[in-house]
Design goal:
Layout (H helix, E strand, L loop, with lengths): L3 H15 L15 H18 L3 E9 L2 E10 L2 E9 L2 E2 L2 H20 L2 H28 E11 L2 E10 L16 E8 L5 E8 L3 E3 L4 E3 L4 E10 L2 E15 L3 E16 L15
Antiparallel strand pairs: 1-2, 1-13, 2-3, 3-4, 5-6, 6-7, 7-8, 8-11, 9-10, 10-12, 11-12, 12-13
Helix pairs in contact: 1-4, 2-4
């Protein structure tokens, strides 16, 4: 059965996450050329996208006062989450042994799977990644960008830009429809053209075509990224509070709060082909 609220959150989250992957500039002392900013930001995010599967990392998912922490391993082409802590406390020895057993069983299962099963598993992971990536291609068409000024953030010189919906934008698919009702701000590292922080919010109701659902004002997102070495940046924190109406009558609210850390390049992987820029 279709889980509509979950689908809405996934669509909204992807749009928010990617809706503002866009801009920096070349010198703090001159007015930026917005088109140049967009192009350089797209290039930086393209490198990050290509590099993501080459890292293991830690992820903490919060649900109100509760949290679960996972060590995320890339195993034969797709990720696997190993639970390592609950509410900030490491698992007991017996729990840890059980989780390690599950990890080894999953490794063995993937090693023994048929070529078609392996292909399907990796294809599902890549489908989600490329769906997000395809959204980026629409961003330059969906928004107008305005340079607001320069700021200091975490000892970095950043450019602050505002993104507003572009009049006449026609979203090509269901997942880009939410862009019609969003605006946001971007804090972009002046040296690397990477985003340091992105915030976005829905400013007017947007109906999701094909579903009896409507994304409502009050939906907000925040994404922070950080350098992980060799010019590559990856997510540091993502939070979302969504407000939608199902069947245009019943209010649905959901939220997510995810923190990422301890990125480790997978031993033996080669990311040189996508590592450009300083990313200090």
């Amino acid at each position: 059965m279709l889980n509509l609220p979950k689908l809405e959150s996934a669509i909204i989250g992807r749009c928010a996450l990617l809706s503002l992957a866009l801009v920096p500039m070349t010198a703090l002392c001159v007015s930026p050329d917005v088109q140049t900013i967009i192009q350089k930001s797209v290039e930086a995010n393209e490198r990050d996208f290509k590099a993501a599967p080459y890292f293991n990392y830690r992820e903490e998912d919060r649900d109100g006062p509760n949290s679960k922490t996972y060590q995320v391993y890339m195993i034969d082409g797709s990720p696997y989450q190993r639970l390592i802590a609950i509410n900030g406390k490491p698992l007991s020895e017996s729990q840890s042994v059980q989780e390690e057993k599950k990890l080894e069983q999953e490794k063995a299962r993937r090693q023994a799977e048929s070529s078609s099963d392996r292909k399907n598993r990796i294809a599902k992971y890549e489908k989600d990644r490329h769906r997000d990536h395809e959204l980026m291609q629409q961003l330059t068409k969906a928004f107008d960008f305005k340079f607001v000024g320069t700021r200091k953030m975490e000892s970095r010189d950043v450019y602050l830009l505002k993104a507003t919906p572009k009049p006449g934008y026609n979203p090509p698919n269901m997942e880009t429809q939410v862009l019609l009702g969003m605006e946001g701000q971007l804090w972009i590292d002046a040296e690397t053209y990477q985003w340091v922080k992105v915030t976005a919010k829905v400013i007017r109701p947007v109906s999701i075509e094909g579903f009896l659902a409507q994304v409502q004002p009050g939906t907000r997102f925040e994404l922070e990224k950080m350098p992980v070495g060799n010019g590559i940046w990856q997510p540091k924190h993502f939070s979302m509070k969504s407000h939608s109406k199902v069947l245009f009558l019943f209010n649905r609210r959901s939220q997510a709060d995810e923190t990422y850390s301890d990125y480790q390049r997978i031993e033996g992987s080669n990311t040189k082909s996508v590592q450009q820029g300083s990313g200090k």
